[in-house]
Amino acid sequence: MACLSYSEVITTRNSSECPQTPSALSWRLAQVSDHADLCRLIAAMALESENRQLDRQTLSAGVAAVFEQPGRGTYWVFCAGQLPVGCALITPEWSDWNNATYWWIQSLYIAPAHRGQGGFELLLVELEKAARTAHVPELRLYVEQYNQRAQQVYLRNGFEGQHYRCMTKALSH
Question: Quick one: which H or E segment has residue 20?
């Protein structure tokens, strides 16, 4: 059976599944019109998690690139009513070992005032449904090693530490 891409699975969803009442907290697929909010939220995440100021032009182009080439990933926004207060980027990774696509949860951020209200759990429910439909064997994420609060949330929701260690090599351009 051919696996569906994340975009194919997600675009088949009925957008009315996410309630948009004034006080409701819900996740929905991001749209191009969410660009400015996504940039704002991702910049806040970088500042909070790594004390890093992102170059706004580069960030803006990076967010736009996901909408221009959906195979790169899919953004979600977490809303308090209609106001975006969080975001996540889901990106695919091909595994030749398993002949399957894994989904990575990246750029996950919820504004401090809206944490502790089950936001991650709501996202996880949506992603797990879509992943099962697309025959995705595993959701993955990485977390800053000193962010104990986030690690506890992930462990509580069934994520496990792995034997892999993330390593990077910066390349000059």
Answer: none
